Amino acid sequence: MADRKLWNNVINKAQKYTVNDFNRDCPNDDACLESIKEQRFPGGVTHCVKCGVDRKHYRVTGRTAYACERCGNHIFPLAGTIFEKSTTSLYLWFYAIYLMSATKCGISAKQIQRETGVTYKTAWRMFKQIRTLMSEEISLEGSSGEVDETYAGGKRKGLRGRPAVGDLKKVPVVGIVERDTTERKGRVVARVTKDTKMETLQGMVREYVLPKSTVYTDEFLGYGNLGLVRDENHKDMGYRHRRINHSEGVYVASAFGESIHTNTIEGFWSLIKRGIGGTHHAVSAKYLQSYLDEYSFRYNRRDVPRPMFKQLLEQVSERAR
Ligand SMILES: [Zn+2]
């Protein structure tokens, strides 16, 4: 029940995009190429290096090129994108992107192989490339945020609580989430870190949380002195630190109209835990960050009223070199 509520929160109605929608918008290679062209050169109009001015360009039959209407010079919309050097059809790429955007828990390379019929090696490469579209550096802007750490890896599946002393196989992950504001839903940053020592946790907070914000954590010792954190010039960051004492069985405390808890970031962990446990089985430390990126990407766009497929597709041209 709690999970269903969580997911309804993540996938809103305006983001609904069915396989029929996909087949209507992207029926074949030509339609897919056309959509990339439109993203990068709307209306086919772009600078022609030979003419030295903006010109309209028309599709060159049988090639992934468009030609200047005046001089015939070619432009290549796939240049610099993740599709550029691939021999896999554009339609299958788009379908893989659709699959990765459509499922709530993410999808594995194995599933891409099964659904598209490409070899596992190709599926794995596509999977990794599509993932790169979801990795981003964002800065949080809320005036209050929750910070929490968790651990993934080892022989057991998924993310667990704090490891026993000497359990070195666990990979630490630190997450910071903004509380929702009236303007928008809070976003998240989740990073694999080298440890969960005070210095590391303070570094994350300093990097992602605005000065003078309120920071909510649990009673973990590593969060001691968050209120005293200084910037690189030794200036007080002015954080207001509020802690909830989980070890005493308290999960939400209210004081002067303020809700002290870390339930939002813990909700995010439970999304990831579900995905890793159910879809990806074992996650190596090396790939953990890209899984976190994938979940964060989706989470941070959950209130954007556009299908996730389109949001992901936009990243292709956003990130073209
Ligand atoms: Zn020209």
Can you describe what's shown?
The chain is an alpha+beta fold. The protein has a domain at 144-300: Ribonuclease H-like superfamily/Ribonuclease H (Nucleotidyltransferase, domain 5, 2-Layer Sandwich), CATH 3.30.420.10. Helices cover 37% and strands 18% of the residues. A hairpin with a 6-residue loop joins β2 and β3. The chain is elongated, with a radius of gyration of 23 Å. The two termini are 44 Å apart. The model is unreliable at 154-158 (pLDDT under 50). The structure holds zinc ion.
Task: Output the keywords.
10 helices, 6-stranded mixed sheet, 321 residues, Nucleotidyltransferase, domain 5, alpha+beta
Note the topology.
Blueprint (H helix, E strand, L loop, with lengths): L1 H9 L8 H7 L3 H12 L4 E4 L4 E7 L6 E3 L5 E2 L14 H13 L6 H8 L3 H13 L11 E10 L5 E2 L9 E9 L9 E5 L5 H11 L5 E5 L21 E5 L8 E3 L2 E3 L2 H18 L4 H16 L7 H11 L3
Parallel strand pairs: 5-9, 9-10
Antiparallel strand pairs: 1-2, 2-3, 3-4, 5-6, 5-7, 7-8, 11-12
Helix pairs in contact: 3-4, 4-10, 5-6, 8-9
Compact description:
The chain has 321 residues and is of the alpha+beta class. Helices cover 37% and strands 18% of the residues.
Strands, total number:
12
Quick one: CATH class of the domain at 144-300?
Answer: Alpha Beta
What Rg do the Cα atoms give? 23 Å
Q: What would you call the quaternary organization?
A: single chain
CATH superfamily of the domain at 144-300: Ribonuclease H-like superfamily/Ribonuclease H
**What small molecules does the structure contain?**
zinc ion
**pLDDT under 50 segments (min length 5)?**
154-158
How would the global form be characterised? elongated
Q: In terms of structural class, how would the helical and strand content be classed? A: alpha+beta
CATH second-level architecture of the domain at 144-300: 2-Layer Sandwich
Helix content: 25-40%
The N- and C-terminal alpha carbons lie at a distance of: 44 Å
Mean pLDDT: 87
How would you sum up the major sheet? 6 strands, mixed
